Amino acid sequence: MAVNLQKGQRINLTKSDGSKLSKIMVGLGWDEVENKGGFFSSIFSSKSNIDCDASVLVCREGKLRSSDDIVYYHNLNHSSGAVKHMGDNLTGEGEGDDEQIFVNLDKLPEQYDKLVFVVNIYDAVERKQHFGMIKNAFIRIVDNDTNTELCRYNLSDDYEGMLAMIVGEVYRKNGDWKFNAIGTGTKDAGLSDLARRYN
After folding, report:
1. pLDDT tens readout for residues 22-79
2. Of 2, 10, 46, 117, which sits 20 to 30 A from 154 (CA to CA)?
3. How far is residue 111's CA from residue 116's CA, in Å, rounded to a whole number?
């Protein structure tokens, strides 16, 4: 039974039998809010074609030390081989995860102690788009060995005017991996601005 988390909640990441995890899948999803209105509103409803990009900042001692440690749609694989992004979803349409990131915790070198999962809207300023136009956003963590969902965090705050989101982080403490549900909206215009928060 997956744990439904509240904002700011932290949990240990363990298998259902209490043993340590080795491989996880982090799934992120969202839907666009339908825009209804105008002359043809009774006939049509339209969507805004919002392109959300999920990325992970692979941190050493809690800090992002190199741009090579950003795993995103232009850098799908971390140099350690421990983090793999499955690619960019351009629309957010469809059920389930919109983007997936696989992490081999056992393979991640010891100096890396935190993975920060972020989502930003591509060209948000130019397109005049923001996270208030998004609904049903979530992050979930799955035990990749058993395909069992361990926890899920549904982001339910009002993100009107926010261009990006720090969704959650997986971090190592005293040899154990934990998850922190963050869900903080920001006005960072792009991934580079988000990354600077962790320099």
Report:
1. 999 999 998 887 765 544 443 333 445 788 999 999 999 999 999 999 999 999 999 9
2. 46
3. 15
